Amino acid sequence: MGAAESVPATGPAVAQPPAAEGVVELPSALVIVGPSGVGKGTLINRLMEADKSYGFSCSHTTRPPREGEVNGVHYHFTSHEAMEAEIAAGKFLEHAHVHKNIYGTSIQAVQDVANAGRCCVLDIDVQGARQVRKAGLRAIFVFIAPPSLEELEHRLRGRATDSEEQITTRLRNAQEEVESVKEAGLYDCVIVNNNLEDAYRQLVAVAKRALAGEVGPSLGSPRGSPTAAAAAAAAGGAGAASADAEPGSGSTAGRASSSSSGVVQQRRTSSGAAALNSTATFKAWLPGEGQSQLNSPHTDEAALLPGAVAASAAGYGWERQHGRVAVVTGAGSGVGWELATSLALAGMRVVAVSRRKAQLEKLQQAMLDAGLAQEDFLPVVADLTKEAEVSALPRIVAKRWPGAGIDVLINNAAVARTDGSLMSGSTEAWVDTVSTNVLGTALATREAVQSMEERQQWGHVINICCAEEGSGMHAATKQAVCSMAQELRLEARARGVPLRVSTITPTALNSYFFRTRAGRNKPRSRHEAADSPSGADATEGAAAQEQPTGSLLHASDVVQACVWCLSAPDHVDVSDITQAFKRAQGGRPQ
Ligand SMILES: Nc1ncnc2c1ncn2[C@@H]1O[C@H](COP(=O)(O)OP(=O)(O)OP(=O)(O)O)[C@@H](O)[C@H]1O
Ligand SMILES: Nc1nc2c(ncn2[C@@H]2O[C@H](COP(=O)(O)O)[C@@H](O)[C@H]2O)c(=O)[nH]1
Question: Are 344 and 321 in contact (CB under 8 A)?
Fold first, then answer.
């Protein structure tokens, strides 16, 4: 259960060490544009040789191979007929007639790089860049400008790869291409390739931003402003003018969106173990001690939380979880939020996964405010229905914490749509629900288990199977999540590996969804009723206040069960926990 994740995630892995800042996003693409002979290939090759986090989008072309060019590496060399057929079949993200040949970027080429968790680098012409911009690919667009057209001609001739006719065509086209820098909103930055070292340093800076999942111009360089630098270049002005990417420049999104930047990072002065055992620390979070330091959107439960964790863990084997890596899905709100905060505060390294960047930023700030060290906590924007984004998780973990891998996976994310009825629901709602709840859980499980297998360190998978009876496709998928745990357990046993698998099934959770079904609250939008068991919406609204829900289960109850599962000694296999609310005398939840 957990987040009603509705904001699509993007991009990929972290090549930059997640240097204690911001929410991690998968890489954006890097689109490199510029006239023939300006040095795009030279710069791109250098970038890719220096850092394997970048992958080249291998284009198709109808031009014949040059000496030394390898099919499938430099280009997919093809015929006009074959290429036109594939374009007609919709296989290309963009294509263009360039210097009398057809060039194009296939969807597969970009997908292959993204699936490998790399930042995809495209080397394309201006027409292609316009199409890619229109297609909405998450990317940073860089124009490489020549210091002068004379120098461009000099380079083209010096390269000695093209016929005189081709050189003439390319130079003629170059003038028009350089003009394109004036198109508002097309490029995010311009690098004038005069001195190769300077240009390379600038490219590295902007490439790092793409690797970190950023898009758009960097701070102080609003879209469209590259024009000045490029115009200077087009007019023959020398110098490495750049509207962006000062060497060492930081990340735009990191600065703009990360609440951590500008905030003095708070370091834990003690280990997780100390935090768990420190009554003083916990006391401040107990009810009656003022506002929750967790600054949770669901304050009633958050205030109880650390006490619950402490109580659960006391006397059991919690200590072995200190420093281990727990991935919590659906961490943007509800149970996921509570799990992420509790486990981190109790000494685990937590990867909080959500589609909703804004929620993760709030969560991150709450963690910092609570005194958690940034390096023990990693928010990752990822869409569980996208294989490339899920499979990037182990790599992201290894980058943040070298030598570590996923030790614990808590499959909590789920979507519950109000239009998910099996008798009258929409197909779209079903697909949404099945994709996130079933496919997403399966993908996350496979990646986590493989991460454990590679390190031969078997950990724990916990599936949160909460479903309200009568919630249609949501309930059906949660049954599937439960069955998946059972199957996983059997597979692990058959292979003789000590993977631990548990399910937690809370019934009648104090959730927005539950109260909506009980007629205590009305859904305000389709997504609002998604699985956000203790989200802010769950505690708002006059109807909710009229009907006290104090005896229903809380997110913290689910956390407590998780902690208990994780604390159980080696010889105790906790397979399934079902939690029910305490009924009032009349048999109805209070
Ligand atoms: N800053 C520079 N100073 C001098 N020569 C350069 C510089 N950058 C690149 N070159 C040279 O310019 C030539 C053209 O470079 P390159 O092949 O990388 O261009 P390109 O933009 O990739 O061309 P195309 O679009 O046709 O593939 C090469 O011989 C390269 O070594
Ligand atoms: N629109 C696209 N343009 C592309 C693609 N791949 C390369 N190119 C551009 O073509 C010229 C010429 O390349 P060359 O290898 O023949 O010198 C170059 O400027 C590239 O940017 C593509 O997939 N789409």
Answer: no
DSSP-derived 3-state class of residue 141: strand
Out of 42, 101, 191, mutate this one to test ligand 1's pocket (max ligand atoms within 8 Å of CB): namely 42
* CB of 306 closer than 8 Å to CB of 282: yes
DSSP 200: H
Among 63, 155, 157, 159, the one annotated catalytic: 159
- Give the span between the Cα atoms of 99 and 54, in whole angstroms: 27
Judge whether 331 and 582 are in contact, CB under 8 Å: no
Nearest bound ligand to the CA of residue 198: 1
Residues 6+ apart with CB under 8 A from 81: none
For residue 319, how far is the Cα from the chain centroid?
30
The preferred substitution site among 159, 166, 172 for testing ligand 1, maximizing ligand atoms within 8 Å of CB, is 159
3-state secondary structure of 235: coil
Let me know if 450 is exposed, middle or buried by CB neighbors in 10 A (0-12, 13-18, 19+): middle
Q: Which of 118, 130, 170, 349 is catalytic?
A: 170
Q: What is the pLDDT of residues 48-60, one digit of tens each?
A: 999 999 999 999 9
Dist. CA 214–CA 175, nearest whole Å: 30
Nearest atom in ligand 2 to the alpha carbon of residue 126 is 1
| Residue that is written with structure tokens 């701070």 in the block | 219
Largest Cα–Cα separation, the chain: 93
Active site residue 170: yes
Stretch (H or E) spanning 47 = helix 40-50
569 alpha carbon to ligand 2 midpoint, in Å?
A: 60
* Continuous H helices in 435-554: 441-455, 473-495, 512-517, 542-546
CA 356 remoteness from chain centre: 9
pLDDT tens by residue, 301-350: 333 344 445 445 544 677 788 899 999 999 998 889 999 998 998 889 99
Ligand 2 lined by 360 (C-beta under 6 Å): no
DSSP 97-137: EETTEEEEEEHHHHHHHHHTTPEEEEEE-HHHHHHHHHHT-
What is the DSSP-derived secondary structure letter of residue 189? E
Whether 104 lines ligand 2, by a CB cut-off of 6 Å, is yes
Do the strands 139-145 and 349-354 form a parallel or antiparallel pair, or are they unpaired?
unpaired
Determine how many CB atoms are found less than 10 A away from the CB of residue 541. 15
- Return the minimum-mean-pLDDT range out of 141-155, 347-361, 555-569: 555-569
Report which ligand 1 atom has the smallest distance to the Cα of 162.
26
Helix or strand holding residue 273 (H, E): helix 272-277
Token pair recorded at residue 24: 């991690």
- Residues 6 or more apart whose CB falls under 8 angstroms from that of 422 comprise 472, 473, 476
Residue that has been written with the tokens 């173990």 in this structure: 273
Backbone φ and ψ of 217, nearest 5°: -70, 160
The pTM of the full predicted model, rounded to 2 decimals, is: 0.51
Joined tokens for residue 473:
């496709």
Nearest to 118, CA basis, from 446, 328, 399: 399
**CA 100 – CA 117 distance, rounded (Å):** 34
